[in-house]
């Protein structure tokens, strides 16, 4: 009898003897084995044995599952624990390498990179935008604003940049030309996003403005908050904005007001969303978790000793960067720190994937973190 013909009950018994690395290898051998492994609680048991029993899963609160430990019926938890285990092993057992280089004359305020287009782009208070080859880190070209560069958005070979000069510039990277300048804001442009040929922007003027990229015409221009808007995030059904008025506002894509999240005690600097979860970070180093369906705060945690300037969220972890000179990676499930990256100065921006992270600080220094197997 071939092992692929074994009944699921026997396979489950065999799989119980494998460690997580072997489970991962086995799971990609065939579709049937993948389904069996995904539906069992192997990854949860491994996590429990390796790092201890976790606290009650916050994910249960925003996925509304009947039993947060019923892996036979809810494979989403198996996937969550698998992702978290992989990340923990990468960050704890891999060796870290670090390269630093001062690339701007003033603070490195924003950065973005794209593996597909092989570009790393940085924006600074020195009014410049530098473009580098992502793999070689060789300098390519520079674009300029009339004042500090505050935000960047990369869309294929097109770059959008927002500035303290109140403008948003649209660049063609291949031709190195400025395609268009959007200039309806009356204060610093803090955050921009592009979705389906629509450009979204928020500013210190409290306004939310959208443009049609086909016609470059303004589609909507209205006052979203009574004071400075710090950040913008797009979800499949909603637009999120956060402000120094200590609130996160939720809008639909027709810009009808949906709801408001209240609870922070200081200005909110950043907001991110994934599925039904919203996370927001404030000037006190506190991150709040919100359920997008009920608009209620699930919980909050003080994770930094200074203002949180940037957040990145995925299915299993949150990455946060702060004025306290650190970037911290911590698990969504048990709120424990997985890894801390230390800077010499305040962290203003970062972007991370499974192989590397780039981050920028107050003195214009670019940090390139990359990792490989420990010897």
State the major sheet.
4 strands, antiparallel
Morphology call: globular
Q: Based on the coordinates given, report the CATH architecture of the largest domain.
A: 7 Propeller
Distance between the termini: 40 Å
Number of helices: 6
The CATH superfamily name of the largest domain is YVTN repeat-like/Quinoprotein amine dehydrogenase
CATH topology of the largest domain: Methylamine Dehydrogenase, Chain H
Tell me the Rg in angstroms.
22 Å
User: Domains counted in the coordinates: how many?
Assistant: 2
How does this structure look, described?
This protein has a four-stranded antiparallel β-sheet. It has 375 residues and is α+β, with helices and mostly antiparallel strands. 16% of the residues lie in helices and 47% in strands. The protein has helices at residues 8-15, 20-27, 31-39, 42-51, 59-63, 75-93; strands spanning 94-102, 108-114, 119-124, 128-133, 139-144, 149-155, 158-163, 168-172, 177-182, 189-195, 198-203, 207-212, 217-223, 229-234, 239-243, 247-251, 257-262, 268-274, 277-282, 286-291, 296-302, 308-313, 317-322, 326-331, 337-342, 347-352, 356-361, 365-373. It has two domains: 3-94, Up-down Bundle (Monooxygenase); 95-373, Methylamine Dehydrogenase, Chain H (7 Propeller).
């Amino acid at each position: 009898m071939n092992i692929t013909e074994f009944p699921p009950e026997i396979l489950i018994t065999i799989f119980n003897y494998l460690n997580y690395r072997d489970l991962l290898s086995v799971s990609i051998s065939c579709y049937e084995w993948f389904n069996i492994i995904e539906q069992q609680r192997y990854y949860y048991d491994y996590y429990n044995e390796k790092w201890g029993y976790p606290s009650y899963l916050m994910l249960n609160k925003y996925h509304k599952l009947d039993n947060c430990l019923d892996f036979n019926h809810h494979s989403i938890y198996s996937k969550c624990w698998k992702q978290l285990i992989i990340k923990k092993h990468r960050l704890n057992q891999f060796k870290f390498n670090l390269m630093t280089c001062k690339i701007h004359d003033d603070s490195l305020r924003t950065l973005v990179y794209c593996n597909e287009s092989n570009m790393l782009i940085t924006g600074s208070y020195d009014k410049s935008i530098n473009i580098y080859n992502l793999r070689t880190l060789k300098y390519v070209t520079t674009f300029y604003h009339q004042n500090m560069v505050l935000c960047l958005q990369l869309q294929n070979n097109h770059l959008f940049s927002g500035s303290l000069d109140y403008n948003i510039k649209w660049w063609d990277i291949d031709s190195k030309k400025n395609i268009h300048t959007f200039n309806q804001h009356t204060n610093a442009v803090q955050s921009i996003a592009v979705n389906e040929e629509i450009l979204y922007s928020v500013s210190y003027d409290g306004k939310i403005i959208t443009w049609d990229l086909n016609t470059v015409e303004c589609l909507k221009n209205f006052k979203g908050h009574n004071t400075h808007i710090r950040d913008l995030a797009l979800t499949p059904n909603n637009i999120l904005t956060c402000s120094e008025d200590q609130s996160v506002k939720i809008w639909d894509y027709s810009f009808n007001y949906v709801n408001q999240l209240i609870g922070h005690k200081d200005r909110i600097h950043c907001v991110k969303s994934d599925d039904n979860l919203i996370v927001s970070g404030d000037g006190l180093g506190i991150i709040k978790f919100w359920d997008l369906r009920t608009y209620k705060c699930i919980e909050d945690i003080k994770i930094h000793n200074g203002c949180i300037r940037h957040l990145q969220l995925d299915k299993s972890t949150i990455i946060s960067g702060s004025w306290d000179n650190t970037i911290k990676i911590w698990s969504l499930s048990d709120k424990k720190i997985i890894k801390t990256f230390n800077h010499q100065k305040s962290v203003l921006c970062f972007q991370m994937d499974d192989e590397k992270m780039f981050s920028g600080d107050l003195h214009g220094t670019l940090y390139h973190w990359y990792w490989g197997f420990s010897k």
